[in-house]
Amino acid sequence: MGNFIPVSETDEKKMLEKIGIGTIEELFSDIPESCRMKGFPDLPEGKSEMEAAGIVRSLADKNKVYHRIFRGAGAYHHYIPAIVREVLSKESFLTAYTPYQAEISQGILQSIFEYQTYICELTGMEVSNAGVYDGAEAAAEAAAMCVEKERTQVLVSAAVHPDILSVVETYCFGSNAECKLVSEKHYVTDLSSLKEMIGPRTACVILQQPDFYGTIEDISAAEKLVHACGAKLILIVNPIASSILKTAGEYGADIAVGEGQPLGMPLSFGGPYLGFMAVKHDMMRKLPGRIVGETKDAGGRTGYVLTLQAREQHIRREKASSNICSNEALCALSAGVYCSAMGPDGIRKAALSSMNKAHYLAQKLSDTGFLPVSQGNTFHEFVTVSPFRVNEVMKLLSRHGILGGLPLKGEHEGEILWCCTEMNSRGEMDELVSILKKEGGTLC
Amino acid sequence: MLIFDKGSKGRHGSYLPECDVPEVSLPDAEKRILPLDFPELSENDVSRHYSELARKAHGVNDGFYPLGSCTMKYNPKIDDDMASLEGFSCIHPLSAEEDSQGCMELMRGLEEDLCEITGMDRFTLQPAAGAHGEFTGLLLIKAFHRARGEEKIRTKIIVPDSAHGTNPASAHMAGFEVMNISSGADGCIDLDTLKSVCDHTVAGLMLTNPNTLGLFDRNIDKITAIVHECGGLCYYDGANLNAVMGIVRPGDIGFDCMHLNLHKTFATPHGGGGPGSGPVGCRKDLVRFLPGKMIEKNPETGLLQWEKESESIGDVRSFYGNFLVFVRAFTYLTMLGKTGVYETSSHAVLNANYMMHCLKDTYPVAFNRTCMHEFVLTLEELKEKTGCSALDIAKGLLDCGIHPPTMYFPLIVKEALMFEPCETESKETMDHAIEVLKKLKETAEKDPQSLHSAPHTTPVSRLDEVNAARHPVLRWTRSDT
Amino acid sequence: MNIPKNLQYTKSHEWVRFDGETNVTVGLTDYAQQELGDLVFVNLPEQGDTITAGETFSDVESVKAVSDVYSPVTGTVEEVNADLLDAPEKINEDPYEAWLVQVKDITAKEELLSSDEYEKFIEEEKLNQNG
Question: Which of B262, B404, B441, C45 meets the CB 3.0–4.6 Å disulfide criterion with B277?
């Protein structure tokens, strides 16, 4: 029933006349009968907007919305200023195409140029691209930038987010690069293991700071190892943490990548998110994806334009280092608006609050029998054991409208990865602990 | 003016409360020392800045957008409304299954609709864009041959020279050698040429039908049969599905796997370059290799649950894909329904043929036959006679408030302009654009210089792209004054 | 159209200067740089790389295109012209001064044309394009 076709029957007749045919069906005469569908697809009847909204809303209602969230693991519940959503819903941003026609797209191009600058500032690097699909894919693309004739081995730490590891492995299956896991010890990268594995065939080493378990790793020591053998260091960073934590640039990383979701994108059940990538000048031409540059027009006015396009698929085709075409432009715009609204103090506040609250909660949980397991410093995530069955803990918290930390699997089965952000008030955290104290005893 | 040149020290918004717990500090060795040179702005500053930028952007809401191969159809606002529901936007991807049944049901519902429309057996929704989907589909093909011990033998992917640049780039990323074949005189695949390159070293073929010239290759079932005969698989680039949705199913004409572009055929907004979504569908034989997690119904509890395929290639993205884009596409499909799908493509094809017939006496058509949802004009003759190229005409359109069509693609047509009006455009919009294009030809003949220097009415005129590439300035830097 | 007499040429529009029996300097011709338009970047091989006659050893980028550069000889790259990395426009400005690579230990070469032969070849190409 619903359609968005403005052509009326009268118009249709006139158009068919102009073409010189009697019915629309004649336009499909090139298609052999054997290729045609028989009848219509087996879908429900079309609906009006009102009915469709009712159907979709009822699906939304089947999900449990938590407002008190203590789970991170790659998707973080930060405060998003209302202005971010306001700007994103401006139709000329939302419905525009890629800004290839620069003269009418200066608004979009400038917003990307500003985003690129924000990413450079956050990561301490010199050049950023316009973004890729997500942090995991950014890590995989970064590895591809480093692989060359003599160096085809990609080392990834087991302390990196498991999805990132999986994506890097999948991309290496594609490129035929060798992907090897560097083991984790006490919730951080095992540096002695790294030292043994790294060699003249290593193209790059991928580490995450803070790592998947929230621990702040000894990246300085790792950096020395990596560069001593001529490999490149790819550092996955948290953009909000980077406002107070040593930056990828300061650590001497060659490529900074990460998940941009904390910068103004809601949890959204996992997407759309945003992968950021930043490098020093020497690796600029290896960056995949779009990049916006500043230049002048014929009249001397400053303008912005997609540049260094000769790296990309539409020009290099099979010689392109990446196939990326559509990216996450609107998400990059979110990140830009978020950074603009929050300002340097706002982002630092979000980072500090997240870190302070996580430490507060860790202390309180520890007093309740949820002892912390990692030994190092943490940022806003930390791992504890659980005195009760983890599933039961989660159900208990859920009954009280709280999304607890993430139950870990594999060799960390039985442990919980907790996360705090500026969104978790002291009262909320006290209540969480109080529930566990009071009712934990009823769990097995 | 850049946002970095706005604001002043000490200015800020008031978004977060003061921290209500004791402070801890990072070890000194791990502290950031580098200053964070962000602008300091009030919300008013931010609001005005982005309003100014929005005025210098051009969306589907601003006018006709006939970009060939992009399917810039109208984006229904209800789709955006649904995507912003708290019950979707506030859900953590690692929620318990029982807490996210609505999200999973929507994804499963979308997957089933896409299977029905395309004739594929299962879909993964994980890829975030069309090119991402191509890469994924090619990995499925690679995994298939690997499982049969033929990975090292079957190293080639056949790609027509008319293909979109992402096709050979994706093949390269998937570790294949690209074998380009020339299109025949009619823009379609020459069967003899195809036969001559199909041997035991071929892993597969990548094809879009209708092709990038907007023409339906009548031999499509013969083409897929030839590739299958030599043991290769056939990949369908679904970018042009808006021409044949509800009319032809790639699964029925011999394709083994394919991707769709939700941001094209399924009306999700382009966002200035993304996010899109490129779900990948495949036939039974390839299902076990699909990445990400599939949604299955537990026969005992009736609940939907996540399951990983037995020989999955892994993941191509974190979590499940661009979920809010799925919400938009699902809402759109719910409205279109059984007959709406056919009406959409048939009107897309009607609109394209109408425009083509109205313009063919002004600008020669690249291939003189019925087109599908898009058509290609060649301005080679105009360039020779007047010196005005496809680029000049495109820039002339900017001064008339019409977004230019796709320029210089496909590569096999000289001075190409590719138009895709979409079914959401009215006859009067198209008639107006046709008049404008006719006038531009007159201008090219009478006053070519005005087009060489077009556009004149936009915020900037033609930009120095040579300088931008030779001396890249890719970020704002604080000046010393 | 500038076609210096003291150089040799390939059908893919590279110029070659023999600096000894087994040493050459290679660049792009005036015709090539005209056809390519404003160059924005050059991808050069590395010192020590082996390059093979008839195969690509470099590519040059303009804003909207990339073009392969083919090696006229088989040998080892002795030196690359690093100036071009910062100033690719030198190829447009002075194609016969803006050499790309110097190659030593040459063991094979492509069919090379004299300046007269190359001039004729260009004339024929132009006719073929317009015909």
Answer: B262
